[in-house]
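Attaching the record inline, Q. Sequence:
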Amino acid sequence: MAFANRIIFLIFPICIFPFFLHAEEEKKNKRIELHEDKKLDAEELAFKKEGFYFNALPLFSSDPVRGQGGGIRANLFFNGKKTDEYFEYQPYQYKISSQLFQTNEGVRNYFISLDTPYLFETAFRWKTSLGWDYNPNSQYFGVGEKSLEALTQRPRNQPGYGEFRSANYNDYENTQSLMRPPASSGEIYSKYSDQGYNQYTFNSTTLFNSVDYTFWKAWKWIAANEISKNIIRHSDKGWNPSKDPLLDNSIWETAVPNSDSKLTEDYKEGKIIGYNGGQANYFRTGLAYDTRDFEPDPDSGILVEFNIANVSKRTGSSFNYNKLFFQTKYFYKIFPSVFEELVFATRLAASYSSSGTPFSEIRYMWSVDGPFTGMGGLQTVRGYRQDRFVGTMVGFGSFELRWRFATLTLGDQHFTFSLVPFYDYGRVWDSEKNIGLKGYKFSWGQGLRIIWNQATVILIDVAKSKEDTQMFVDFAHAF
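Structure, as predicted:
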C-alpha cells in the first residue's frame, strides 16, 4: 500500500502539469496539434458519414458463463461535417449508447453512456455512464497462483475415492452436478451436489465519469471517478436438479442442495475479503500515449497507458486499497503490396492490486478504452472461462491478424468483413517477486468481425484451450 501511495504522490503532479501548460497555449491558438498518425487514411475518410446517424442492434450474445441471451443496443452518433476542425481525427463527435440485455442464465445488463472526443473542439474528452449488472453465474476458482492449477474432481463426485485432475471443463462441470452423500458432519441433508461450487451472484450498480486531456500531439492526461455498489450472494444451499451418479446420466433426479461453494470455503479460511460485496469508490489518474488512427477499428498506431486507482474508506468505500494498470497495444499493416487490408494487432498488459482488495475487485481492470475483468473470457485469454485465473499480479497478452477480405455498401450503410485468427496468453502471481516466464496459460482461435459504418464492431469468436472450447458473440474488438 505504501509503495502505491508513493507512486501516486510522484505521478499526480506530472499528470496535471501538461494541463496547466497547454491551457495557456489554447488561449492563443485554438487548434489542437495532433499526431499525424491519428488521421484517417483517404479511403477510410471517404466512407465516414457526416451528421447524425442511428443504429439499433438486436443483441444475440452467447458465451459459456452468461448463457444465450438477447436484447437491444441503440447508438446515436454525431460525426459533424467533413469541413469540421477534427473530422479526420475523431471516431465521432458524440456517441450516446444504451443497452437492455438478458440471458437464459438470468444475466441482466442495462446501461446508458455518453462519449465526447475533443469536446467543443477542445483537447478535452468526457465519458460518462450509468449501468446495472446482475450475474447469478459469476465464476470463482480461487485467488493467486493456486488458481493456475488444473481442475480437480472426485470419481463420479463420490467422497472417499480420492481426486484426479481433469483437463476438460465440461467433464468437470458434469461431475460436479452428480449427487453425493454428505462429505462432513456439518452437512445435514442426505444428498448434495457441487454444481454451484464455482459460482456466486454479483449485483453491481455503477456510475462512471472520466476526463482526459490531449497534449503534445498524442499524450493524454486522464482523471476518472467510479462509484460502485456491489451486492454478492452465494450459491451455498441453493437447490438444483441433480443427476444420480449410478444411473444413466440423462436422468434428472429430485433437486438437492448445493454444498459450500469455493468462495465460502476461502472466506472461512481467511483467504479473501469482500465476501458480501460493499461500496467501492474509485479515483484514478493516469497517462497515455495514443497514435491509433481510428479507435473502434485501428489500422495503425500504438497505445501505451499507465493508471493508478485508489479506493479509500475516507471517500465512503468499504475498503482501503490501490490498483496499478499498464497496457500497450500496437497495430500495423503488413504486406500492403500483397494484402490491401491485413493488420497485425498485439496487446501486452499487467495489473497489480494491493493488500486489502476484495476478491471481486482483484479481477477488475480499467483502461482508457473501458473496464474489463479477467483472466479468462472474451477480453483476455479467450479459451478459458471468465475469471478463471485471478491474482494480485496479472500479466497477459494477445496476437491477432485482422484481414479485411470484403466490403459491402447497402444504400448509405457500409459494412466491412474481417477474418481474425488470434492467440492469447497470460498468468497470475502471488507477488511481484514471483514474476517470470514460466507457467503461462495459452488459448487460440478464429474470429469474424463485421464493421458497420466504421464505428460499430460486431465480434464472433471461437476460442480453444487445453481446458475448454468457447464461442463468443459480442460488440467491439477483444482489444
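The chain has a mean pLDDT of 89. The longest helix spans residues 2-28.

More tomorrow.
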